[in-house]
Write a sequence for this structure.
């Protein structure tokens, strides 16, 4: 053990510590700059603008494909020829940042793409801009996938700064080499350097653990847990097996109990007073045409989805759109709040073109589509709920009022709690979506859509993704809205629900309106053979019926 | 007429140069910096070095923040002699010449061999002759006594050193005379080369004579010197072709070092053979 004092003297040598500090400074700055640039490159890579996409791709291709050593020497020794003379430190930071930008761009792109596209759609339906969606919805979820890759890069960079010795950066490994060059005690000196590197990378690993906890919505909402530094470094804590950490029985039992007791809520009662004022407004303009679709066309590539849809909906009306799968019902719905562009035709909601401007050449999409959507106040409920996965039920509802409508946190929270009460989910306010049953998620989604104070609600097969026993609770909520006088368009397969709640039923098949009229006309006395055939196929005893009979 | 004028001018220049060599090189005149080398007033000259090349440039064992070694001492003496401010700029050896070309450093003074190819890019002032030393295990068990005795051995050489082509030539010679060839191992830095001999992976390590001698002197139980040959190459300091004042300052200073015996004293301080000294000379292409 007589080597130990000498070994320790190297570990604590100011000469080596200064080198370590230099490596840390370069790594910190280059990672910061590189990741910021990497985010920009990742967005460029995903841009539909070819010039941006190709520029980013070319940059990444070149930087990833050429040796870092060469880039360092180039920046240090070639740029002076055109009058740019950088010192070693600045050169190292720039060259490492340029590299990190290229590598992190692909990590960030992968992370962003790992978040479901439907999160973008949900945010768009609430009038959130792309930037806002990226910042508030996508990146917080993507970061959990991005972070391990970026930390890998940072640790790799810390150790790789030694190659900058070629441009006169005197960091830890180079200083160790110089000592070895003088005394040839290779293992002692490099052993000491290894201890220093390990200490520094341990700090980075700890930072990763800390920030991952901050990003984990589940952990963040729990009381202080058993997660520790040990867990991060070695994957387990003292005195517990990895198995015991998995799951949280407390949470699962709550979820189960409430899923069962959800049947007992009186949804009709809780929703009845949702919008009394709307009923009054509606009486004035009840028969006026509130939503007007004129000759609406849509193609996906060569496939014609909508071949000229004409329909009108009055204020306060509840319209059920029925039709076979692939008939274009959902597409039509998504064009009403401009989630998708039209190829031809015109849609107005309360006189507004929702993101289009009328020009002499016809309709032109506006540049600020998000604002147009926000101004239109159209609520949208998706088949697959599309709740923001990292936000609790309450936060899901508050997101658009606070971020888009600029309400205060307090005000938005009070409204959100009221909405949750109205859909019977007060006790689930702080639960994340994946802790809720499908029916509960859809009720939160409806509350979220109502939070933007909609003048029109669009439902895209709101019960199709639900287990049969959960369909009833969602339909009750929608029915409550209808009773309160909300103007609604519901794409549905629940024929019995359509018959009982809708003022008007529209049957679409093959991209055109085959038949429309009162539920009694369309559902009980259909004129067209196609309508009859469709109704025979779908009109089995519905879940809604079972629910009412239960 | 024109030819005559050029001839006269050249002759005058030659004569005055010779005069300088005799009269101007007798003493250091740091106070006359502004007179003698006006463009260097107020400038700090960056001396590019890689302190992993004992005995030329290395870290001081007592204080790692200090640089010692033959080239370190000599370059400091020469620049002090002219009254020029200076600092060492420390980087990997491979990056020194590109940095000099780019103007990131002003002087490259670290066991650099003069070659005609290098002199096309930079000016040299040479001051010592280079030799190749053969480092072996203690007692030289393989009896390596000259380049011709390398046949059948494993020899380590540094990447890009002058020894590299010499050993390859020796290998060809072995093979053409029917003897077993040389197993050549290349390494990136000196410490890696010495480890090859230490662990017995290589029988011999061929490198600059000064370095080999200092290794044997410091660790006689670990190494022996098999043989030494003078390679006929010269070691010098290099600087930009544009910097005429610096060239003059270095050649003037070197002449002072040689006439005063300072260079030989530094040779002895670091265990180098004083007979390696050659008359300081400007070499350019």
């Amino acid at each position: 053990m007589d080597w130990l004092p000498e070994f320790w003297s190297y570990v604590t040598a100011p000469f080596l510590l200064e080198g370590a500090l230099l490596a840390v400074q370069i790594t910190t700055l280059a990672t910061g700059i590189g990741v910021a640039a990497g985010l920009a490159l990742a967005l460029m890579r995903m841009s539909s603008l070819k010039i941006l996409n190709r520029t980013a791709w070319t940059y990444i291709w070149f930087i990833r494909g050429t040796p870092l050593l060469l880039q360092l020497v180039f920046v240090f020794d070639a740029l002076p020829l055109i009058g740019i003379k950088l010192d070693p430190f600045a050169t190292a930071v720039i060259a490492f940042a340029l590299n990190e930008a290229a590598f992190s761009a692909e990590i960030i792109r992968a992370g962003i793409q790992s978040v479901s596209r439907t999160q973008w759609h949900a945010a768009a339906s609430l009038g959130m801009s792309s930037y806002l969606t990226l910042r508030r919805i996508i990146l917080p979820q993507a970061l959990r996938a991005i972070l391990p890759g970026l930390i890998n890069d940072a640790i790799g960079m810390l150790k790789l700064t030694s190659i900058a010795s070629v441009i006169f950066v005197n960091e830890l490994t180079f200083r160790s080499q110089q000592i070895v060059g003088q005394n040839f005690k290779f293992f002692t000196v490099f052993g000491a350097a290894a201890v220093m590197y390990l200490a520094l990378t341990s700090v980075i690993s700890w930072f990763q653990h800390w920030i991952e906890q901050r990003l984990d919505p589940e952990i963040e909402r729990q009381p202080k847990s058993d997660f520790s530094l040990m867990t991060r470094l070695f994957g387990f804590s003292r005195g517990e097996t990895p198995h015991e950490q998995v799951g949280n029985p407390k949470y699962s039992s709550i979820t189960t109990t409430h899923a069962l007791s959800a049947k007992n809520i009186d949804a009709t009662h809780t929703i009845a007073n949702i919008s009394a004022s709307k009923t009054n407004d509606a009486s004035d303009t009840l028969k006026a045409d509130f939503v007007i679709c004129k000759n609406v066309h849509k193609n996906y590539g060569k496939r014609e989805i909508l071949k000229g849809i004409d329909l009108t909906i009055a204020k306060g009306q509840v319209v059920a759109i029925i039709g076979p799968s692939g008939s274009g019902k959902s597409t039509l719905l998504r064009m009403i709040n401009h989630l998708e562009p039209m190829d031809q035709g015109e849609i107005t909601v309360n006189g507004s073109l929702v993101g289009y401007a009328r020009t002499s050449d016809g309709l032109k999409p506006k540049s600020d589509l998000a604002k147009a959507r926000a101004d239109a106040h159209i609520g949208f409920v998706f088949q697959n709920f599309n709740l923001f996965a990292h936000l609790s039920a309450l936060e899901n509802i508050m997101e658009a009022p606070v971020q888009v409508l600029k309400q205060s946190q307090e005000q938005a929270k009070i409204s959100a709690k009221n909405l949750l009460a109205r859909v019977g989910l007060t006790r689930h306010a702080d639960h994340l979506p994946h802790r809720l049953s499908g029916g509960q998620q859809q009720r939160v989604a409806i509350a979220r859509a109502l939070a933007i104070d909609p003048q029109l609600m669009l439902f895209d097969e709101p019960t199709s993704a639900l287990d049969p026993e959960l369909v009833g609770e969602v339909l009750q909520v929608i029915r409550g809205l209808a009773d309160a006088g909300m103007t609604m368009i519901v794409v549905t397969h629940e024929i019995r629900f359509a018959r009982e709640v809708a003022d008007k039923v529209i049957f679409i098949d093959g991209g055109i309106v085959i038949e429309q009229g009162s539920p009694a006309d369309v559902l009980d006395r259909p004129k067209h053979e196609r309508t009859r055939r469709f109704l025979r196929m779908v009109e089995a005893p519905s879940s809604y019926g079972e629910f009412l009979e239960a | 007429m024109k030819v005559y004028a050029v001839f006269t001018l050249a002759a005058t220049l030659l004569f005055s140069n010779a005069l300088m060599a005799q009269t101007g090189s007798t003493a250091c005149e740091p106070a006359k910096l502004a007179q003698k080398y006006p463009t260097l007033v107020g400038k700090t000259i960056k001396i590019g070095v890689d302190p992993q090349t004992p005995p030329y440039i290395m870290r001081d064992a007592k204080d790692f923040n200090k640089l010692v070694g033959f080239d370190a001492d000599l370059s400091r003496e020469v620049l002090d002699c002219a009254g020029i401010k200076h600092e060492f700029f420390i980087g990997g050896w491979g990056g020194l010449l590109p940095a000099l070309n780019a103007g990131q450093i002003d002087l490259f003074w670290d066991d650099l061999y003069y070659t005609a190819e290098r002199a096309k890019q930079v000016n040299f002032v040479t001051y010592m002759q280079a030799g190749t030393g053969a480092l072996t295990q203690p007692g030289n068990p393989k009896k390596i006594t000259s380049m011709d005795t390398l046949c059948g051995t494993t020899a380590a050489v540094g990447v890009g050193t002058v020894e590299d082509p010499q050993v390859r030539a020796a290998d060809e010679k072995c093979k053409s005379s029917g003897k077993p060839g040389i197993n050549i191992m290349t390494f990136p830095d000196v410490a890696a080369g010495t480890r090859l001999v230490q662990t017995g992976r290589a029988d011999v390590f061929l490198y600059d004579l000064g370095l080999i001698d200092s290794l044997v002197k410091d660790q006689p139980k670990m190494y022996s010197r098999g043989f030494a040959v003078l390679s006929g190459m010269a070691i010098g300091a290099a600087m930009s072709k544009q910097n005429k004042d610096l060239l003059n300052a270095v050649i003037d200073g070197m002449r002072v070092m040689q006439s005063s015996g300072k260079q030989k004293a530094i040779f002895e301080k670091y265990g180098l053979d004083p007979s390696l000294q050659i008359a300081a000379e400007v070499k350019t292409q």
Observations:
- The radius of gyration of chain B is 21 Å.
- Chain B touches chain A at residues 48, 51-54, 58-61, 64-65, 89-92, 94-95, 98-99, 101-105, 189-191, 194-195, 215, 219 (CB under 8 Å).
- DSSP finds ten helices and twelve strands in chain B.
